């Protein structure tokens, strides 16, 4: 007997047209047998998401959208914006009560206007029970009070991306797992003319990821468990002093980098170590057949977890991508049907595979997806949802934490100290004032 899963898996290698054809057949069977919500008559949806970083991810996603439409008759228009523009557009739509039916954003986005989000408790409860449970961080991001307000669709693992040959030339056989060794590696890379570099501009993904890591690794926090501001501490000072030393070893100009700069610099061999998802590797692999330089970079690069600091445990900050529906939509059942469709394992797996692991899973059953064992250079992305701290870390993950991220409080503090715009103490005091205005 040929199952829907085997039909889909067997078609993946046959090319895009075959995937579309077989996926459409599977989707039709799903709509008849497994769909929890009957879409409203005449329903059509609009979804705003962040612009893709991996072309094959977008291709796989749009194939799913087309299959959903073919199976249910619900047209879904997909709009794309830069990663930094999704949050303000969603906030405006929530305030005025009109706009796209769904938003696919970052981190705590739904908590900026939790009362404006569709209640998806029944859906997320069902998916969690069916697929082995959600990652703890996914539950934090997806829930407000006693209800689910968003589906934690996937994560982007933010990892150390590095060139193996440069690391070896600098005198290291493996990526250091401690702060001292990591700093020495960065200094040594500068010494051989192959420096690193990480974004210190308003980079919602890569910039926020590394500055929160360095703060938390030293035991510094923006707020405590009661959401009291505690950023002004010896631990924060130590984190900024360490960050300044890293910055001095890097290529000039990182204070103005957004989320795209490090990708370009790494592939241009301007930097040999940075932080990113696996999209740099995916881009190099995609171009490898036509470009020998890209083939060489793909072969020579790898990914690693972030070093452990005085905190004594992983303090990584991976991006959670929540998908939320707005209460003003005319078609709430269609919204929830679409959300369910995306998360069913039969095609959630090939979608993440199409993303070349730039997206990683948020429920436990994803640990068994076959593509994780196909390429050892992607394995570090697998546990992102389980290793990450959430936006508030010790504190809540609600509206205040979301606003602190959107206002780049921690990122600007680190940038001010590293670039010399402010002294370490001056940068901390600015961040403290900003945080206290939010956490009142």
Kindly report the average pLDDT value: 93
What's the total count of β strands?
10
How helix-rich are the residues, as a percent range?
40-55%
Query: Helix tally?
Result: 19
Secondary-structure-derived class:
alpha+beta
Shape by Cα distribution: globular
Low-pLDDT sequence parts: 1-21
The secondary-structure element order is HHEHEHEHHEEEEHHHHHEHHEEHHHHHH
Q: What about the largest sheet?
A: 5 strands, mixed
Query: What is the terminal separation in angstroms?
Result: 61 Å
Keywords: Signal, Transport
Subcellular location: Periplasm
Family: Belongs to the bacterial solute-binding protein 1 family.
Organism: Paralimibaculum aggregatum
Would you give an account of this structure?
The protein is of the alpha+beta class and 440 residues long. It folds into two domains: 4-157 and 318-387, Periplasmic binding protein-like II (D-Maltodextrin-Binding Protein, domain 2); 159-316 and 407-438, D-Maltodextrin-Binding Protein, domain 2 (3-Layer(aba) Sandwich), CATH 3.40.190. Helices cover 47% and strands 11% of the residues. The protein contains 19 helices and ten strands. It has helices at 4-12, 16-33, 55-72, 83-96, 121-130, 136-142, 164-169, 179-191, 206-217, 234-249, 261-267, 279-287, 292-300, 332-343, 345-354, 384-387, 399-406, 409-419, 424-438, and strands at residues 44-50, 75-81, 102-104, 143-144, 147-148, 151-156, 159-163, 273-276, 301-304, 319-325. The strands form three sheets. A five-stranded mixed beta sheet has the order 2-1-3-10-6, sandwiched between helices. The protein has a three-stranded antiparallel beta sheet with strand order 8-7-9. Strands 4-5 form a two-stranded antiparallel sheet. Strand 4 and strand 5 form a beta hairpin. Helix 2 (16-33) packs across helix 3 (55-72). The longest helix is centred in the first third of the chain and has 18 residues, at 16-33. It is globular, with a radius of gyration of 22 Å. The model is unreliable at 1-21 (pLDDT under 50). Its main location: periplasm. Keywords: Signal, Transport.
